[in-house]
Amino acid sequence: MSVQQVNKRIIKEIELSDYPADIKDIAKHLLNLELGRWMEQNRWKFRQEYEAEINKAALKRGEER
Amino acid sequence: MKILSIELTNYRQYRDTQKIEFGEGGTKNVTVIVGVNGAGKTNLLNAINWCLYGLEENLKADTEKKQGVINDQILEKLKAGQIATAKVTITGLEEDGHQVIFERMVEAHKNSQNNVVYHDPNFFIMKEHNNNWITVTAPSLFINRILPEALRHFFIFDGEKLNQFFKEENVHQVKRAIFDVSQLSLLDTATEHLEKTLYDIRSEIKGTPKIDELREKIETFVKSKELLISDRIKVDESRKEAHAELQKIKEQLRGVDAKSINELHKKREEIEDRCKRIEEEIERDNQKLTNKILESFPLVFCFDAIDGSIAKIREKTNKGELPPKIKNTFLKELIESGECICGSDLNDKTKRKRIEQLIESVMSSGIAEYIAEGRYTLQACKEMVRPLFQEIEEIGVEISENDTMLKNANSELEEITVKLKNSGSTAIINLEYARESFEQQIEKANRELGQLDERIKWADKEVGMLNQEFEREISRLEKHNVANKKLKIGTDVLAVYHSVKGNLIGKIRATAEQKTKEYFLSLIWKKQTYNDVRIDENYNVSVINLLGKECLGTLSAGERQVLALSFLAGLRDVSGFEAPIVIDSPLGRISGEPRENIAELLPTYFNKSQVILLVTDEEYTQKVRSILLKRVWKEYKLDYEEKESKTHVIQNGK
After folding, report:
1. Which of B98, B206, B410, B613 has the smallest C-beta neighbourhood within 10 Å, fewest atoms?
2. B131 interaction partners in chain A (CB closer than 8 Å)
């Protein structure tokens, strides 16, 4: 499971909790900040994946046209 | 990721370059590597771990540890000033169809004193990218994406060691495994950063002496908690080391070439198992006893009062004082009518007063009337206490019987220790003393860990209470309104994180429990014996038989291995990683029909994954082979040449 997937799972669990909406929002926001930090530290890992995704989309667009 | 091949160059007994190719998956997802003991199966497992993580955890003997990874023959022939190299290269295939190469290499030279000096190993990863190869700049992070180091045990493991999984320190291992698989480090980091932020906010508040005093107290407790945590890590490490040493000694005692010693050691293991079962039973009974006492506490507490009241009521009833002879409604009717039943006029002042006094006395005896009726309720309460007393007594008897059994078993263990110490063989005597010393170390460490856990909990509680007091204090000062609000929000968010973490781990534990049960009940051959597998909130694993009784302690070595295999397969599913499964001696402790049953089911469970099985001739019987063959992509044989200290990898049929 990737870090993003784990993060999604945590966010979902926060949403399901009984805490006030504003507290839940901050909890989610801080966690996303943490994910951002993590991604920033590991951005080399995503470069290739992002590029592959962009390539795929570009190819698809080409096919559609 | 799938492993396409592994190439070993001068790695331990794999002298020169030996290459093994693996099946990619699909219906033929299994690669079988057969070799006798010592041929290099476990070192193949070590080679994978060494290449990917720089770790060799399954070395069988101390000599192997001392030797280092380069083939000993190569090192022996090495001359001063010359360099020898060992290398393991793994070629993998990623889901996107690109290949990846992992390579770890180490060099060594001989110095002028003819001693081998190892250099630092080199590790690199190359990835195929747009028809080019690029070097991955942060290899350990890249590996973490494929299979994090903490999760490797669920994919690459020694089947023979699985037998120990639920035998000793099971709670610790099961808990660790579930925590690892949960991968909540992101949540932990967010919690840690938030705690630091709140700490900074508190530090910036300049207030009354009371606020300063509270802040100082909080800081002291936080620091002492940190110290306690670091102590805990140290003690835990030393316990793990002692445990590993103990296992080694037990293995050595098991391997002693003397029948009488072997029998004593076997008997000791049986008694130790028995002791564990009894201890578990005593613990369960103690829990039952506590629950019963809590349940009956109010009644037991009031028992003397209830008994005394019943006796008093009986005494009053016998004297004729209870229930009251005249009802006050009757007397009131007399007053209202103004005439007694004997015809006397009750308007007469003296007579009327007499009746009024009677009413008053009967009024107070209304309570007595109630008490007289309440006697039955009190009696019922007393009746309820009796069976509870009886149950408590029965549990007590059971505990004391088990205590006696435990004492007897411990004396038997002591006798065995004495016999082994007097065996006459210095090697065995030394092993026995070392075993005893490591057991004492583990016991001491366990006690210390228990104390430290309690102290950490206490420090946590104190910090929580002081924080609340701190917030209350600053809420009184208007100028700190903003800081107070920040602290309140931050504390609430922390509470969200703690509760979410607990919930997620709870859910993962429940899924692991369900998966383990599913696998275990399908893999186990005694279909009519076992009914359930449970992992409770404290991570205690139990196997329930059809009679509803817990029977983990009575599982045979093979059954326990199946349980551990099921647990690992369950956790692997929960982890969501699709890495290859490498198992050394998966059927080592299982024989006959059960072995064939597992051979049939194992590849099915790891259906989507690539499976690499390292087996001995004895495990890979004709029957097992014929069952597995439909799933096998390639078979290899490891041929060890003792003279040359070299293993040849031979593909079957070539």
Report:
1. B206
2. none
Q: Which residues of B touch A26 (CB under 8 A)?
A: 489, 493
By CB neighbour count within 10 A (0-12 exposed, 13-18 middle, 19+ buried), where does B160 fall?
Answer: middle
Complex ipTM, two decimals?
0.74
Residues from chain A contacting residue B496 (CB–CB below 8 Å): 14, 17, 19, 23-24, 27
CA dist B317 and A43 (Å) reads 90
Put simply, the answer to whether A19 touches B137 (Cβ < 8 Å) is no
> What count of other Cβ atoms lies within 10 Å of the Cβ of residue B132?
8
Q: Give the residue, B627 or A2, on which the prediction is more confident.
A: B627
What count of residues does chain B have? 654
Q: Does B492 touch chain A (CB under 8 A)?
A: yes
pLDDT exceeding 90 applies to what percent of chain B? 20
Task: Specify the pLDDT at position B198.
Answer: 87
What pairs with residue B102 in β-bridges? B90, B125
- Interface contacts (A, B; CB < 8 Å): 70
Number of alpha carbons in the 13 Å side-chain half-sphere of residue A62: 6
Q: Are B141 and A1 inside 8 Å of each other by CB?
A: no
Residue B448: is its pLDDT beyond 60?
Answer: yes
pLDDT at B363 over 70: no
Q: What is the mean pLDDT of residues A11-31?
A: 92
pLDDT band at B62 (very low <50, low <70, confident <90, very high): low
Q: Which residues contact B161 (CB under 8 A, 6 or more apart)?
A: B58
